[in-house]
Design brief:
- With 71 residues, this protein is mainly α.
- It has helices at residues 3-11, 19-34, 41-51, 57-68.
- The chain has one domain (3-68).
- Helix 1 (3-11) packs antiparallel against helix 2 (19-34).
- The radius of gyration is 12 Å and the shape is globular.
Length: 71
Amino acid sequence: MKKAKSIAILNRYKDEIPKELYEQILWVIGNQAIEDMFLDEEDIKALIAQGRGKVKADEQVSRFKKKWGVA
């Protein structure tokens, strides 16, 4: 998966989320790409849920660390 694919996935949700949340997730996609780590649909949905207050940030960080094997 590449950065462009992550952005394409995010764009599917663009009209469903506030502009600020869209830009925040776009920023995350860019920063993860620097580390050669790319967000899939599950990751993007999770960030949308976090942005809507349905999931806490520390829960997301823990999930991402497990997924990517980062301690």
